[in-house]
Backbone:
């Protein structure tokens, strides 16, 4: 990866390494995907920081220990490998470096505030996922490749950083877990999105998810693909990562 990109790194309260995503413009959206990904439009973003990996179970355990926040658990037999022990408040054995799942948008938001950051906006997430490869379908190019991401399998998540990073040094921007972002979802938002630092609609009923997940087909891993769900929804396909605005004090 170009060394000039990784000119500034930060360590957050939760131990995350955050890389500086430089200010600038990019083309957001895709004509090759679904109508909600259109029109392709220019976006100009301020510089920001983004964690190199999704938040892990080990990191999330520190958060719940310090705050008393609920642990990731869902009363569903399909979650048996991902549910935390509610009495011990611990993650499943051997899964410390797997991305935390079974977290709602509200859970992710609370974690980011505790860690001294925030969720990335949808535009920030897409720019970061694209890295230096403008106009490509995936973070690495136009061809899907099972050696580059965890998708379309039945075995669950992999430890974060198991696959090569993109041009910004970010891991798991495709596959492994969906990632909550800050924005409300609106299907036609791109048609009226502002040029500078778009933050999504002012209100809505569902929040945006990006990146695809381990169980899902390759099309969901495309950098322009937009998904959504209720902010209180939890499942073992969903996680998140930490962002931070330039100049924000670390806690």
Residues:
């Amino acid at each position: 990866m170009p060394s000039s990109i990784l000119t500034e790194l930060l360590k957050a309260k939760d131990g995350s390494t955050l890389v500086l995503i430089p200010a600038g413009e990019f083309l957001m959206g895709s004509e090759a995907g679904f109508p909600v990904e259109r029109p392709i439009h220019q976006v100009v973003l301020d510089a920001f920081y983004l964690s190199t990996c999704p938040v892990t179970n080990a990191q999330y355990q520190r958060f719940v220990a310090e705050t008393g926040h609920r642990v990731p658990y869902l009363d569903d037999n399909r979650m048996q490998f991902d549910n935390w022990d509610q009495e011990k408040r611990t993650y499943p054995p051997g899964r410390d470096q797997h991305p935390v799942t079974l977290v709602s948008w509200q859970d992710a938001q609370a974690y980011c505030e505790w860690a001294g950051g925030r969720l990335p906006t949808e535009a920030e997430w897409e720019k970061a996922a694209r890295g230096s490869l403008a106009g490509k379908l995936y973070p690495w190019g136009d061809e899907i490749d099972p050696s580059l991401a965890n998708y379309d399998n039945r075995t669950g998540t992999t430890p974060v950083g198991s696959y090569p990073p993109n041009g910004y040094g970010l891991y798991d921007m495709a596959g492994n877990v969906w990632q909550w972002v800050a924005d409300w979802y609106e299907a036609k938002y791109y048609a009226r999105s502002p040029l500078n630092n778009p933050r999504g609609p002012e209100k809505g009923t569902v929040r945006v998810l990006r990146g695809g997940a381990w169980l899902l087909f390759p099309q969901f891993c495309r950098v322009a693909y937009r998904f959504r769900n209720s902010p209180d929804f939890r499942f073992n396909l969903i996680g998140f990562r930490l962002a931070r605005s330039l100049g924000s004090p670390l806690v």
Notes: The first helix runs from residue 57 to 67.
